[in-house]
Amino acid sequence: MNPLLRAQIASIARRQIVRTLRQPASAIPPILFPLALMLVNAGGLDSATSLPGFPADSFYAFALAVPFIQGALFSTVNAGTDLARDIQNGFLNRLALTPMRGVALLAGLLAGVVALGVAQAVVYVVAGLAVGVDIQSGAAGVAVLLLLSALISLGFGALGAMMALRTGSGEAVQGLFPALFVFLFISSMNMPRNLIEIEWFRIAATVNPVSYLIEGVRSLVITGWDGETLALAFGIAFALAVIALGLAAHALGGRMERT
Amino acid sequence: MALEPAIQADRLVKQFKKGPRAVDGIDLAVGAGEIYGFLGPNGAGKSTTVHMLTTLLPPTSGSARVAGHDVASEGPRVRAAIGAALQEAALDPLLSGRDHMRLQTALHGMPRGDRARRSDELLERVGLMGAADRRVGTYSGGMKRRLDLALALVHAPRILFLDEPTTGLDPQSRNALWEEVARLAKEDGVTVFLTTQYLEEADVLADRVGIIDHGHLVAEGTPKALKAEIGRPTVEAVPADPDDRLRVAAILERFGEPTQGAPNGVAVRLEGEIELAGIVRALDAEEVKVEHLQLHAPSLDDVFLAKTGHSLEGAAAPEPEREREAVGAE
Fold first, then answer.
1. A259 near B CB under 8 A
2. Which helix (H) or strand (E) holds B195?
3. pLDDT value at B256 more than 60
4. B128-135: which pairs have CB atoms within 8 A and are 24 or more residues apart?
5. Which of B121, B182, B222, B283 has the most beta carbons within 10 angstroms of its beta carbon?
6. Intervals of CATH 3.40.50.300 along chain B
7. Do A98 and B112 touch (CB under 8 A)?
8. Minimal Cα–Cα distance from B327 to chain A, Å?
9. How many domains does chain A have?
10. Assigned CATH class of B7-91+139-227+304-327
11. Which pLDDT score is estimated for B150?
């Protein structure tokens, strides 16, 4: 990579991380809220583990996958909102007046999002171990889990960036969050798809790509190495990242109208 | 061969979708090392012009060259030659002044070893060394503007665009910024294109002034020439003893032709150079005591009024929708 481009990406990524760390009020809830939700769900749904065919003995182990996706959603919205603020207050114009390439802005922003996403994932792994979850895929599985988390953060981060670049509005980015949350709830987050009795819900969860992201993470925790599930999860995360990045790059072209 | 102007625009137009022509056929020629004041009310088209000249907005028609490069087709070359502090001091409140400098120097491709040195040099120059590690969110308006200026100077640009740099600043901060801008032009030979809605700013700082109203350049020249164009200054004297009115009139008529003054005073429109000291000496020589002596010099507001039919004060026009979005309120 060209050294100038590398320096530009590193500087934008550093800014993104510094910004996040200096706003504890927006950095901590994306980590704590998913964990709190997992604890509440695990408390209420623990008896589900006695259902015939339930794939885990501990609901904590089953539910641990959810914070990874939920945390990615939170940090995505934060990153998108930050970018929208940069557009609104003219900071993007400041950047546009430098020799910075558009790709450096997107790559730097998303590198920051991914770094924070991985840091979040480490917290979730530690929290899982603390409540007694035994990660079946072992240390190598944790590494793959972090890689998958990074890819998921990249995809959702690009989605948030695209929304910010298209609308230039923090409110519009925030509006994306409930919509993404609906995808999370209509998924296999609380129950394996084959055990969902309500037909429409099972169908919705089956066509919902978020189910496969959760199942990929979950398989590393409760199953071990499940090639097909992992391939699906990585494939969907990769496709989401490619599509969202393409849309974000296109939106950036329109937003940074410089000649 | 004549030197190419640092900034040149020919019939420059910006038409926003579903909006008025924010800039409507402007011609400009700003010489190297000159401070050019672009004066006009809110919504006149100042910021839109700056955004076109700094390559942030493509012109709808017409052309402009900055530092010898076409703004529409040679954007990167233009940007390499210019620095800009746009209307809002677009800073990140969570970053420190030094963080901003570090980001800006890196984005400009400065070698890692030079970044800290250049940052310190500029922070020192704008008087922010003591606050360099504080978050910008704690800075005053004047400090933000000074940091904005330092950021614009990171790559030692030949041309500097300042979009309403002193709006909202207290007089002390404003004067400090004026001094720095004047120093940049005088000592470093930087060409400064400065937009302002403050008459005093244009008058004090600019070598030449362009007056823009509703997207049109309505007048251009040195402040002195513009003021001279619309009329000569007047001197008005009110004698301490009303019986001396005729004597005062006779003395003042040596300096110019009589004109309408206050009921108890005498006024003349001056001819030639303004020489208030000469008038005072003449009155003193004749042992005439005056209660009040005042020089009325035409102001740039008088120029604005004469050229546009309305005063600059309160002459704001509604901002085109697209301009607000892309440029920020002017």
1. yes
2. strand B191-196
3. yes
4. B128/B97, B131/B97, B132/B96, B132/B97, B132/B98, B132/B101, B133/B96, B133/B97, B133/B98, B134/B96, B134/B97, B135/A22, B135/B93, B135/B94, B135/B95, B135/B96
5. B283
6. 7-91+139-227+304-327
7. no
8. 7
9. 1
10. alpha beta
11. 94
Residue A15 touches chain B, beta carbons under 8 Å: yes
Q: What is the ipTM of this complex?
A: 0.83
Report the alpha-carbon distance of residue B35 to residue B32 in Å, rounded: 9
pLDDT tens-digit readout, B210-241: 999 999 999 999 988 888 877 778 888 999 98
**The amino acid at B13:** V
Contact B181, B192 (CB under 8 A): yes
Tens-place pLDDT, residues A20-30: 889 888 778 88
Looking at residue B107, what is its pLDDT? 93
**Domain over B232-297 is classified CATH 3.30.70.100:** yes
Q: Is A4 on the interface with B (CB under 8 A)?
A: yes
Q: How do residues A155-205 score in pLDDT, each as one tens digit?
A: 999 999 999 999 999 999 988 888 888 999 999 999 999 999 999 999 999
Q: Which chain A residue has the Cα nearest residue B93?
A: A19
Say yes or no for a CB contact (<8 Å) between A89 and B88.
yes
pLDDT at position B65: 97
Shortest Cα–Cα distance, A22 to chain B (Å): 7
**Amino acid of residue A59:** F
Whether A11 and B135 lie within 8 Å, measured CB to CB? no
Q: Is B8 helix (H, G, I), strand (E, B) or coil?
A: strand
**Contact between A95 and B107 using a beta-carbon 8 Å cutoff:** yes
